[in-house]
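Record MFS transporter, 507 aa.
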Amino acid sequence: MQSIKRNWKGKSASLPREYQVGQAHKFLKLLRLSGFTPMAVAMFVLGTALSFTAPYVSLYGVNHAHMSPGHLGFFMTMMAVSGVAISRYLGKRSDAAPNRRPYVLVANFAAVIGYGGLGLTSNYWIIMILGCVFLGIAAAILPQMFAFSKTALTFSDDEQEDLGMAGLRTLVSIAWVFGPSIGAILLSLLDFDGLFGIAAGCFLLAGLLVLRVKAPAVPHHTVRTQPAAPLDSGMVELTMPDCATPCTDGAPRRAAPAVASRASTATLAQSASRAAVAAPKAAHAGAVPSKEAAAAAVPTKDAGTAASPRKPFDMTIMLAFTAFTLIGVSGAALMIALPIYMVNVLHGNSHQVAMMFGWGALLEVPIMLGFGLSSKRLPKSKLIAAGALIHVVYFVSILFADSAEHLVPLQAANAFVVSVFSCLGMQYFQELMPGEPGAATTLFFNTNRVGAIVAGVLTGWIAGLFGYWQVFVMCACLSGIAFVMLVYLARAEGRVRGKAGKAKLAS
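=>
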């Protein structure tokens, strides 16, 4: 008995070491993945460029171009409108194209022209043209980079893919740890023309690094999937093999298993099983699945669900999009108002602005890595709802801060919110829209873009009439509304999972 206890204790004591070795092996295997290293460096450089520009655009408008709050709000709104329209168009085109790389390069080179031009002028209407045209195209950089990574990198399984995508997102956050501080130094030494010029060079370098990532031709034989139904309807959601990944480049590609995640009856589960047998064979051959496989993948009316193509916005996606957009409004208004509030109201300086953004980004790194390592086991919908609640607390705390120094530690709360919505939120939308990584990723990023549209108008209007303090009151209210919507979605998802569990037991 004592021997058994000693062996058990010895084994349990070695578990942490084994776990650490296992996690290190996962990262090393990821680094050896073809194309991952240049893609990772490109993401880091891109994050650096964004950290040089995003915190200081509003200060550029007020202090360099001498915009009023109304003019600044109109500029930010029009830039966001063009960004949403152009990035959505490019997202659809890239999903239908054999190679996403040209779209990534166009977005990067547009950023080079846009930010390079901003540094050379203070004319309001020239700034509007640069913002609406070139920076509107540049708005597609992040969604296109992530979609390109998802399809171009040959991940071995879903776990490695989740870790890889979280790692790429984390590199963007790491760049934000020191980027705003370096940006503040460059701003004090070189003014806005030097700051934006160096940022343009970073965008150019990121585009050149993307050229080093091999992107094999993609045969477009994508199995269309059943819609993500309203959560209370009990409609089955099938995730079919991802035939939009390369299957003919000589290396065998994994096919994601068919998953009946919201089965309402045993008959639907059996239909999904037949589809899982038939479809991978067709995916491996690079051909369109047979009629039998397609028929098995679509629930019939006899099985309890009408077979109809997925609507662009069903109720689930609409609610999720609206809630994420409200959080996007709050986040965009924060980026516009907080630097001005710190400098002009709380009498801080650009170095304190940089410290605030850098501290928040530093805290995001371990949180995002943790999400990447355990994303399959995390309750995404509950964590996202919790993030919205913490956002409310964060904005209320800003209202009671009476100095710029008090705002810096508050970024711990904002870091959690950013990590949850950026890391888990992207996966959340991709699960709602299986088989459409470009459209899903673009839709997710467009919640921020639409949020920026609304934020530009509201921030300019509220700040012009009442002041920047009242902008944060608005942000707290909008985050509260988003919290209520996300709680509803999380509870509805729980009810659906409960029904699916009962159906599985009944079968």
